[in-house]
Amino acid sequence: MKELIQLKVNGQAYEVAVNTHHTLLEVLREELSLTGTKESCNLGECGSCTVLIDGIPVHSCLTLAVEAQGKDITTIEGLAEGGRLDPLQQSFVDHGAVQCGFCTPGMILAAKGLLKKNSSPNEAEIRKAVSGNLCRCTGYVKIVDAINAVATK
Amino acid sequence: MRLPKFQYKSPATIDEAIALVSEAKGDAVIIAGGTDLLPSMKQRRLTPKIVVNIKRAEDLAYIKDGENNVRIGALTRLSSIEESDIIRKKFPMLAKAAGEVGVPQHRNAGTIGGNLCLNTRCWYYNQSAFFRTCRPVCYKFGNEEDKCQLFPTREGKANVCYSVFSGDTAPSLIALKTEVKIKGPKGERKIPLAELYTGDGKRPLALGWGDILTEVIIPDPPAYSSGCYLKYRIREAIDFPLVGVAANIVLDSKDGICERASVVLGAVASRPVEVTDAEDILRSNKITDDLIEEVSEAAFKAAKPLSNLHECSAQYRKRLAKIFTKRAINSILSAISQS
Ligand SMILES: Cc1cc2nc3c(=O)[nH]c(=O)nc-3n(C[C@H](O)[C@H](O)[C@H](O)COP(=O)(O)OP(=O)(O)OC[C@H]3O[C@@H](n4cnc5c(N)ncnc54)[C@H](O)[C@@H]3O)c2cc1C
Ligand code: SF4
Ligand code: FES
Ligand code: FES
């Protein structure tokens, strides 16, 4: 069954006919070609599909697209402004917190969600905020350092 | 991995939602946060024809500090409970339990209603559709005549399912004597939360078709009382509990005599298990190390986990129930004496 819905992604309004059994992850990647949001476990275990809905990090693989109507959705494509990376993105680059890069979009959005709520988190709060995001490459230390460097002291 | 196809309904009122689900009998399910339901649907353990969203129906996302209780709407997110000043002040163990569910993303979407109505788990049942192509389905997944694949009963005996209830907030809420409001086709009723659980792994909840949990009501904590929830899991995030122990104790004065005590175990059976002896042992006594030892021994006896969570053995979980009970009571006593 298809339903015509309005989605607001990275400030831009879209009108899409979605299958009601499709997740936000599927619609972002397959209908809107926003492939920055990564698909991995698809079961809410790895965090690679994390997006912000109304500023709060959630799993797009466990969100029905129809239920994201009327909400403000932010994906990794929405962070850079005018070709300039978001400070978090730049910090990930500077700290070598990106290796294969697959976990990075989810990791950065989980961190973004934290910084929106708490601009000066301590290390424990940073670790908790990204505890739902698995990374097979970096060993996490550089990721935590990268987020820590952006947090206001 | 796509979801199976279903009809999606998002009724404007809770009564419409109740009507939809009750008329569809077993063909419809309710979706709240979806963090438990959708993985089960992706793996085809559940393939409902109709999915009914209740988030549009009524404003059930609230935490209200009443005269002698705190009321929480069923659609309140776990992260709101974790961060609520009211809950942190009055029921710190509930804030902690909510904060230990899964990871931030689950708590930002997952609701208290969904956490209390969580399906039970077992390593054999929580598998993919692919797994089931080469192994027989078990009693919980299949029909009345399908055998439990881990602990089959003898020929001619009725099947039993021992899948585990692993919700993190229920033990604390039961220890706090919480009641829940349920709205259904026959109207509204209020029951102690403990009575929501049947203990039957195949049908773990005492809810009929169309019954919707709408509100959680926690009585205010008396003076000189405190609670503690301890959760054991392999990793510090993501994992469901392998054992959860919630204890709540009321004294008559600082370092005084025990008036009420309750110890509730999570993840050791198909329902949260109340250690009923705990109150008998502690009430009207000054709590000593010997009595704490006695209560933890009672918790050890009450915990009857089986080896159906693959992360650690049943024996280990049983012993942890004892150790955590002791730790929880000690930490409560020091919290009351410092308050
Ligand atoms: C990787 C992973 C890890 C997890 N770890 C934990 C954990 O550590 N601890 C834990 O407790 N949980 C855990 N969960 C499970 C889940 O995220 C939470 O329990 C969450 O609170 C479920 O709430 P929900 O609103 O998302 O429920 P939903 O998925 O929407 O619903 C769950 C069930 O309850 C029913 N239901 C929902 N609301 C109501 C209502 N108001 N009335 C009647 N029935 C209702 C639904 O029909 C469904 O059957 C985990 C899940 C995943 C995927
Ligand atoms: S305990 Fe229940 S879920 Fe596990 S195999 Fe047996 S019937 Fe299935
Ligand atoms: S793809 Fe959504 S959590 Fe792994
Ligand atoms: S950089 Fe490769 S998974 Fe994290």
From TrEMBL, chain A:
Segments forming domain 2Fe-2S ferredoxin-type: 3-79
Gene3D superfamilies in the record: 3.10.20.30, [2Fe-2S]-binding domain
Coiled coil ranges: none
Enzyme Commission designation: 1.17.1.5
Protein keywords: 2Fe-2S, Iron, Iron-sulfur, Metal-binding, Oxidoreductase
Protein name: Nicotinate dehydrogenase small FeS subunit
InterPro entries: 2Fe-2S-bd (IPR002888), 2Fe-2S-bd_dom_sf (IPR036884), 2Fe-2S_ferredoxin-like_sf (IPR036010), 2Fe-2S_ferredoxin-type (IPR001041), 2Fe2S_fd_BS (IPR006058), Beta-grasp_dom_sf (IPR012675), Diverse_Oxidoreductases (IPR051452)
Pfam families, A to Z: Fer2 (PF00111), Fer2_2 (PF01799)
PROSITE patterns: 2FE2S_FER_1, 2FE2S_FER_2
Gene Ontology molecular function: any one: nicotinate dehydrogenase activity
CDD domains: fer2
